[in-house]
Amino acid sequence: MHLRLPAILLATRQQGETAVVARLLTEEFGVIAAYVAGGRGRRLRPVVIPGNRVDLQLSALDSRLPFAKLELVESRGALLGEPLPAAAIGWACALTATVLPERQPYPALHAGLAALLAAIGHAPSARGWTGALAAYETLMLRELGYGEVTRGAPARGEDMAADLVALDRLAPALTRYLLADRRGDVMAARHRLRALLGRML
């Protein structure tokens, strides 16, 4: 079976000398892990960046690891040199790749992550996307069955301070419910991001 569909690249890990196993978020199938030949090569290195939108071609989608070809649709590479956008993209993609089960569709999370990444890419500063980040974390908790812990959480604020309050109130729920057994490096990424955001006040 051959499939072609849009995807958001979430993470990669080295496989052999030149290949990578990529984790990608699709609207129809959720998170898919796939083998990308040459993923560490010069041609594909700019493509396999977390947050990139890609055209994904899969050779199969059965119980085995499918082979994939990737074509770049929209790059986040230019943002990697900016500490705040790079940290936000890294956190959002790492959270998504870590907590979502494979091959279970979450169309609302696909749309939410796409909107968050677009906001990070187009807003003139972090003030334009910090609230969207809090909204995405809230959506993640709700979609995975922990909506009750987000009740009473502040809505997106009108200023940076209110958005940071929202992020701070979400941190314990993320740690306890989504990352209880695997929070080390993943939550460390969020802590770094939160420290950078705090300097804007």
Explain what you see.
The protein has 2 domains: 3-75, OB fold (Dihydrolipoamide Acetyltransferase, E2P), CATH 2.40.50; 78-198, no CATH class. It contains 5 helices and 5 strands. The protein has helices at residues 83-99, 107-122, 130-143, 160-178, 184-198; strands at residues 3-15, 19-26, 30-36, 53-58, 68-74. Strands 3-2-1-4-5 form a 5-stranded antiparallel sheet. Strand 1 (3-15) and strand 2 form a beta hairpin. The longest helix has 19 residues, at 160-178. The radius of gyration is 17 Å and the shape is globular.
Number of helices, counting only DSSP H or I runs of 4 residues or more = 5
Global Rg: 17 Å
Q: Percentage of helical residues?
A: 40-55%
Number of domains: 2
Spatially, the strands of the biggest sheet line up as 3-2-1-4-5
Mean pLDDT: 92
- Quote the beta fraction: 15-25%
Order of helices and strands: EEEEEHHHHH
Low-confidence stretches: none
Q: Terminal Cα separation, in Å? A: 52 Å
Query: Can you count the beta strands?
Result: 5
- Specify the structural class: alpha+beta
